[in-house]
Amino acid sequence: MTRILFISVMSALGLGFMSLSSFAQVSRKQCSRSVLLNAIDKDGNRVAGLKATDFVLTVNGQDIQFELRTGIQTSPVLIVLQTSRSMKRAAYFEFALLQDILAKLPGSTEVGVMVFSDKPKLISDFTLDRKSSMNAFASVVSGNSEWKYSADPKVAIEASIDVFDSKKAKGNIIFLTNGTGPLQNSSTVTKKLQARGVRLYAFLWDQSSIQSTVEELAARDFLTETSSDSGGARFWASSYEKAEISTLDMAVAGRISYPYQLIVTTAYSENSPIKVRLRNPRDNNYALEFPRKLPTCINSDSILH
User: Fold this and answer.
1) In-domain check, residue 305
2) Residue 101 belongs to a domain with what CATH number?
3) Which tens digit of pLDDT belongs to each residue from 282-296?
4) What is the CATH number of the domain that holds 69?
5) Is 65 inside any structural domain?
6) Mind listing the pLDDT tens digit for each residue in 113-131?
7) Which segments within 227-280 are labelled E, that is strand?
8) What distances in angstroms separate CA 295 from CA 27, 91, 210, 291, one per listed residue?
9) What is the pTM of this model?
């Protein structure tokens, strides 16, 4: 059966779409630029083993030579966990989810942790210290101060975007909620996510023991539309099973980790549109996600070795 590859391209500064109507400009001198690339199959699994000869890179419609480096690069990740009373029984699941995500992400990925009930609270700023992130949430699990009766997921998502905005960074939000709370007008949140270059990966905890309310159904639609339109995805979390946690986390980690880096030296500016395609797509059955704009000049520290 023909395998469909989804090629996700992002700049070294993060994710973000660019209009095809943008015009290329030539800078005064050549410099090296980095294009991070991920290959994902139709099941959401990362595809490894591709070579430089498998890709064609164009800048402003012109084929450009590049050097392929392999390794892992990721944008910052903010993990947002709901801590309302309705999620108290899922505290262990959330703890295990956080632990598993931290284990699967590359060590070079900065991770922050936010919790929310009636108000969002950043309990761990972006750091490479995994133990610090776990300890911050462990203190929440063991206490009662953050487990309020109400929750506002929409406010929490907006607060998460504000964290990236304050750092002028692009990145990813991993968001766990049971869907209780007001979730409407997804277009407003989607625009903010897209403007900041942040992807939302939503884990919707399915309380299968109770009948879904109109509010919960609306939340599902909201999270599905918002995550998809931001370039992320929505996942179901329906049990405490470790196997399910591992499957969900692997799906997310595979989408926000970038194992390929194309190094190109060119005089085109960062305003120039780029495209990457496979050189020999079998039966033309490949779906490609771009274009992206050419990123800014890089230094040697940004190159995979």
Assistant:
1) no
2) 3.40.50.410
3) 544 555 555 467 777
4) 2.60.40
5) yes
6) 999 988 899 999 999 999 9
7) 233-237, 257-268, 273-278
8) 13, 40, 48, 12
9) 0.66
